[in-house]
Every structure is written in structure tokens, then in C-alpha cells.
Amino acid sequence: MTFKLFQKLGAALLLAFWSLAVHAEMAWNFPKPVTPLAEDTLHVHNKFMVIIMIIFLIVLGIMIYSIINHRKDKGYKAANFTGPSTRSQVLWTLVPFALLLYIDFILMGIPAYHSVVMMEDTKNNADMVLKVTGMQWRWQYEYMDGDAKGVKFVSNLKTPQEQIENKAEKGEHYLLEVDNPVVLPVGKKVRILLTSNDVIHTWWVPQFGTARDAIPGFLRETWARIEEPGTYKGQCKELCGKGHGFMPVVVNAVSEDEFKKWAETKKTELATASAGADKEWSKDDLMAHGKEVYEKNCAVCHQPDGKGVPPAFPPLADSKIVNAPNFDGEGKLMKDSHLDRVFNGIRVMPAWKGTLSDVDIAAVVTYERNSFGNNMADVVQPAQVKALR
Amino acid sequence: MTTATAAHGHDDHHDHHPTGIMRWLTTTNHKDIGTMYLTFALIMFMVGGAMILAVRAELFQPGLQLMQPEFFNQLIGVHALVMIFASLMPAATGFANWLIPLQIGAPDMALPRLNNWGFWLLPPAAILLTLPFTLALFGIGDGAIATGWTFYAPLSTQGGIGVDFAIFSVHLLGISSVMGSINIIVTIFNMRAPGMTLMKMPLFAWGWLITAFLLIATIPVLAGAVTMLLTDRHFGTHFFDAAGGGDPILFQHLFWFFGHPEVYILLLPVWGFIPHILSAFSRKPNYGYKAQVYSFWAIGALSVVVWAHHFFTVGMPVPALLYFMYSTMSISLPLAVLFFCWIATMWKGSMTFETPMLFATGWVILFGIGGLTGLVLADVAADAQYHHSYFVVAHFHYTLFAGGMMGMMAGAYFWLPKITGRMYNEKLGKLHFWLTAISFNLTFIPQFFLGLAGMPRRIPDYALQFSEFNMISSIAAFVLGLSQLIFFYNIISCARGNGEKAADKPWEGAEGLEWTLPSPPPYHSFTEQPVVR
């Protein structure tokens, strides 16, 4: 009686979930592939899923047949065999074994072999090289050759903190939007080199069928030939600390012409920025730019209010390091000074000289020295930072 | 020795031992120690379960509601360490302690004091693992280990004191496991009843024997790896730091050289006792006993040569990728033999479906899903997509929750009458099974789809397209968690002596020496050595 009731309850529950599943827009398989590798992966995946479902259903069918028929309450008398006894029975027990050998190493093994070879064919006929550097918790992209050679920038999560903390309505691209998406031309084989500045990250764009670890101190590589223009999104998928869920990958795939145009604009932008390093900046400009840089790069650890999360991430407010001079009497950078920390890093603190421009560093240091209750009243000029390089 | 004690009349006072807490602290009796292991496993099952329910509550909808990412990362890692090292493994050791001496006709375990020590290392280890949570409340340190259970360097090199606590905890747990393994191997090789050759030994003992060898082979590697991590953290070595000539990937190789056999360490004891249950309720002897034993050996051997399939995405030479792919696929062959034998044992039996049989049958089906998804995970190219996505999370919960925990539950219901001398409430047992099986599937099937759609694991917050599946998964996880209370109720009421008295052999079709003893068995079993013909 209770059993029947639970069967009904279970069925009702299943039905409720099923209707929910049908009405909501849910993805049931890999997202649409846009590279040859992703197409191959989807194809192999679909094939393997069908194979394992067939195996599962056949075995389940045999079990269910046995469960329904070989029951004591049906008066079924137990047999007594403990193994195959005749020659034909021995042969029959070998059939599933042989079938599995065939499935493992021929039916699945051969396509899987080709996929592996394809996935690792990163160098042949590569049209351009993109270097990706993972760091806590953002990606840096650098174009090593071609039209955009020398272009280098950092790509940060753009979703406002208010949305994450449920204080504002979540946007359409919640957690999958960045300030500087990486731009790649369609139809070109891009060899992607990966490394990391701190811990292991994984650069993953599901629609490219590629996922490869970025390992500190080593170079790893993968490749993508994007066949359709569009915006493709992915995430870091190796646990890399507290910001692991907040370092998305966004790739804009554009036509070759557009890519050339984009490269030119980006180059001019970078040239202007580096030219800015030579002029004298006003304190107000430095403060305004510094606030932007701080919120994008520093606030994740040191917090927007500069109070930090001790002991892992020390506060900047009232900090002894921040509230001390940067340069000694001869104008030389002092070791363990505020600027030294930002420029060269220490332990978990990254060396920002690798990722921020002179203007950014000068501005953010100036901002930190004159905010959160700190009142050093001095400024750091971009030229002073440039001189340190 | 026996004559000497007999002269003092010791045999007349078999049950003479300290009472109260001293009984449990000083006991060398395999049944007492087994009970302690099982109780500990049950308590830690609740602790680990509570942690993951907090995680599922956070993941109920997008956005950060209940906790900060730092705390989220601590919960997921400690959940895994607790469930694997402090719940599944002690549960298996607890059953081994209770059952192996009874099943092979031995009066006790071969090394009783080692046995006691092995258990009493566990509570300090569990405390070490979870203490940083409490310390953080008092402003000391920044909480427990936040690297996931895998300790991957260099994330673990930069972590807080939680990592050090976890390293020492793993050392204690490892020492405990190795001591338990030595004890089981020595017991099995030396204390079988006359006539019980190795190839007549119950499958549970066989499963555990292979587990014990795997533990002794791999735990020292884990201990070495975490010690290297400790010296990297505090003594200036650079094993896993490229800046000093080390390699972060070395850690992954060492960890998974332990980590993959660990999967079979958790599963082999279950593969051992499931056939006992299937055969008992099918009223039919086990099919292919020898084939099962040889498959145990084959899987044990293969398990130590496939480790790199846990990190295909780090980038390896093509021959290495192919080797690890094909060797991983070949595990499906001995595993298929086991499935064949399990189903052939049921085939043409005279089956009834009491709770242990429900769990055992459900186990075969659900573990089958875990095994088959494992087969596709071996494919390197597709693995790039499955790896570290929710697909993998779902896969290993099918192997470790269904394949591990639900197997343990089948065993618990099967031997509970023997251990406590009382019958559990059958209706509640069946209710427990159905709730567990249904809510388990509703928790983890959505996670397969989440993984395919591209949701990475170990993230505290997610993009909006993953919302519906996460919501279903969270609701079902709470049903799954709460239904385990029925299990606790059933066990506690048996342990307190409620319920019908159990017969010596409560299951009609059960075979084995343990059923020849009264329920519960006397404190010292087999006063006369049984002979197996």
C-alpha cells in the first residue's frame, strides 16, 4: 500500500520536474560548435552517448526482465548454476566480452584516436599566434605576430559587484562579459600559447572544443580555427582561488578586414596610452584614472573600501606601507615601499609591471595614497614609473 | 597461551572488559572497533552532507546569497575530504572489522592493538580537518583548505593555514588506513578457518584484500606528495614551483597516482559485499566466483597505471594521451565481467526485494551509469569538454555516492540484524531506498546537462542559462539529504534494541560463516574453530 503511494508520489514528482524542464529553455548538449575541433568533439560525443545508452538500455532491459519474472512471489524456483557449463554457454559468455573489446578499441577507439591527433595538431599551418596569460583573476592577451603584433591587454570581468550581490538586476550576460574581449579573425588557424602568472587556470571556450591549462612557468598550447563570426564565451575551469567563478573568456570573432581595423585602433590606443606616460599629469586626473584602475584590478582583494580581507589580503587604509615615502632622498625607489609592492609584487600580490601601463600604475598608486583615509598628498608621475622599467 | 589463560578461569568471563568510555578507548575487540568505525563514518556522513547542502543552497540561484566565494571553496574541498577519507573509507574498514573475522572463521583480527590505534587516529584527523573553520571564527587564520580536495599546487602553496591542517589530517588518515590494511592482510593470510582456501574465501574478504594492497601501495605516495607541499610552503623547497626548477604538474602526477587507485579502494569493498546480497535474495549461489576474483585483481592492477586521465587538459605528448586513454578504456573489460556476474547471479533466481536487495539492485543500475559515463570520459578530445565541468561532478557522484555510499547502505541493512540482533523497520527501509534513489537521480542527472552546457565545477556563482537545472538539483539534494535521516533512525533504533529480535540467519538465502553465529554474535566469536569443507 505504502509502496504504491510512493510510486505515485515519485511519478508525480518526476512529471513536475519534466514539465519544468520542457518549459524552461535548457541546453541538453554541447553548445553549437564553431571550429573543426568542436565539430569533431560533438560528433564523437554524440556517437559515444548513443553507444553507452544502448549498452545501458540492453543491460537494464535484461535486469528488468529478470526482476519481473524471476521472483519468489511468482513462484519462480531458483536455478543453481554458478558459471557456464556447456561449450555453447562458454561461447555465449564470451560474446559480450568480444563486443565490448570491439566497442572500446574499434568503434570508440578509432574516432577517439583521430580526435586526439587533431586536437594536438597545434603547429601545422598556423596563421597566427595568440599568447594567453592567466592570472588571479583575469586573462591577459598578447598578439605575437600578424596584423595585431604587439597588441597586449588585460581582460576583466565587467559584471558590476551589485549584480553579484543581488543588489541590482542581473544583466543578460551576467558573469560572461568582459571589458576587453579578445578579437580573432575567422577562418584563420590561431595557435594559442598559454601560461600563467600565479596558479593553474584553464582557458576554456566550449564552442571551440578546446580547453587547456595555463601553468605558471610553462608554456602549453592549443588551437582554434573559428568558422563563423560571433561572440563566444567561456570560463576558467581550474579552481584558482576566490575569483575562480569570476574570470570569463569572451572572444569576438570577426572578418579579416574588421580584424585589421580593430588591430589598428587598438595599436593607436596603446600608443596614446604610452605617450601619456611622458607628459605631466595633474593630481585630479591621476586620482580619477586611479579609481578606475583600482576598482578593476585591486578591489577584488583589497576591497572597494580599502579595508582588505586580513590576513590574506591586507588593508590599504592606514597601511604602514602606503603611508610612507616611495623614493629616498636621491629619488631612488625604496625597497618594500608602496610603489615597489605594486610594481614588483610579493608572494600573492602580482607584479603589476607586467600587466598595467605606466599611467595605470602611477594613477593607482596616487589614488591609494590619497584615499580610504590615507592622506600622503603626494603624486606619482607616469614618467617616474617609466623610469623604473 | 590459551591453556595459561584457561588455568586462570579467564574463559568463564568472556565479556569481562572495562565499562563506559574506557571500554571504547582501550578495546581491542574487532566488533567494538568495527562499531566505532561505523559510528564515526555515519557521523562524518552527516557532517559532510551538511556542508554540501550549504553549497547546494548557495547554488540554488545565481548571485551570492549565503556565503562568500572563499568560504564556498572551503566547503567543497572539505566536503570531499570528509566524505572520502572520513566517511566512505571508515565505513568500509568498519564492515571489514565486523565481518572479515566472522566470515573467515577467525576469533578476532590478527593485530588487535594496531586495530585500536588505527581507529583512534581518525577523530583527531577529523578535528584537524575541520578545526580551521572554528579558528577562523575567532580570527585565527582564514579558514579551512580552499583548494578543493586535490590540493593542487601552486594554489595550495599560496593557501592559508587550512592547507597545513589538511596536510596533517591526511597524514593521520593515511597512517590509519595503512595500519588497517596491514591488519586485514595479516588476518586474511593467517587466520582463515581450516579448509577455507583463498579461492573459497567470501568475495567481501577478497575485495578488501585487493583494497588493502592498493592502500599500502599508494598512500605513501600521497603522503610524500603532501609532505613535499608542506616543505614548499614552509621550508623553501621548490618541488612544485617553476621559479625554482620545480613543476606544478608533478604534484598532479603524484596526487593522482594515489587518487585513481583510491576510487577502487572505495569501490572494491562494495563490489565484495554486493554479490553476497544479490545471491542471498536471489536464493542462488554467486555466478562466476573465480571470474569475479580475477576481475578484482585485474582492476586493482590497472588502477595504478591510468592516473593521468584525471588531468588530460594539462597538455601531454600524443603518445601519453593515447596510452592513458586506451588503458583507461580497458578497465571497462574486467568491470563488464563483474556486471555480467552480478546480473547472472540474479538471473533465474527466486528473488525477493527486501531493503538490502532494493539497494543492491539500484546500486547495479546506478553504478552502471557511473561506469559508462567513465568510459566516455576516457576519450581525450571529449574529455577536454567534460573535464572540470559539472558532467564530471555528476559522473563521480554516480560512482561514489551510488557506487560507494548506496552500496554501503545495502551492506548496512543486510548485516544490521546480525550486528545489532534486531530487525530494522522494513517499511522505513524501503521508503529510504525509494527517496534516496529518486532524489539522487534528480540531483545529478541535471548536473550532466549543466556540464555539457558549459558550467565549470567549483564556482560559487553562475551565468543565468544554468539557473533551472541548478534549482532542480538543489531541491533534490535537500530531499536526498533529509531522507538519510530515515537511515539514521533505522540504525539507531536497532542499536537501542528496538524492533523485532533477529534470527541467527534472518535472510533465507544468505550464505557464510557469519550466519552460523547468534545475532548479535557473542563478544568473542568462534569458541570452537569452524571447519570449512
Low-confidence parts of chain B: 1-13
Task: Provide the β-strand percentage band of chain A.
Answer: 15-25%
Query: What does the average pLDDT of chain B come to?
Result: 92
N-to-C order of helices and strands of chain B = HHHHHHHHHHHHHHHHHH
- Fraction of helical residues of chain B: 55-70%
What can you tell me about this protein's structure?
The complex is a heterodimer of chains A (389) and B (533). Chain A is an alpha+beta fold and 389 residues long. Chain A is built from ten helices and ten strands. In chain A, the strands form two sheets. Chain A has a five-stranded mixed β-sheet, with no helix packed on it. In chain A, helix 2 (36-69) runs antiparallel to helix 4. Chain A starts with a helix and ends with a helix. Chain B is mainly alpha-helical. Mean pLDDT of chain B is 92; it is low at 1-13.
Features:
heterodimer; A: 389 residues; alpha+beta; Immunoglobulin-like; Cytochrome Bc1 Complex, Chain D, domain 2; 10 helices; B: 533 residues; mainly alpha; 18 helices
Q: TL;DR?
A:
With 389 residues, chain A is an alpha+beta fold.
Topology:
The complex is a heterodimer of chains A (389) and B (533).
Chain A (H helix, E strand, L loop, with lengths): L1 H22 L12 H34 L17 H21 L1 H12 L7 E8 L2 E6 L8 E4 L5 H4 L17 E4 L3 E8 L4 E5 L4 E5 L5 E6 L4 E7 L11 E7 L1 H20 L7 H20 L35 H7 L13 H12 L12 H7 L1
Chain B lengths: L1 H6 L13 H6 L3 H29 L10 H36 L7 H9 L1 H16 L17 H4 L2 H30 L12 H32 L13 H35 L6 H15 L14 H13 L1 H15 L8 H23 L2 H7 L3 H31 L5 H28 L13 H29 L38
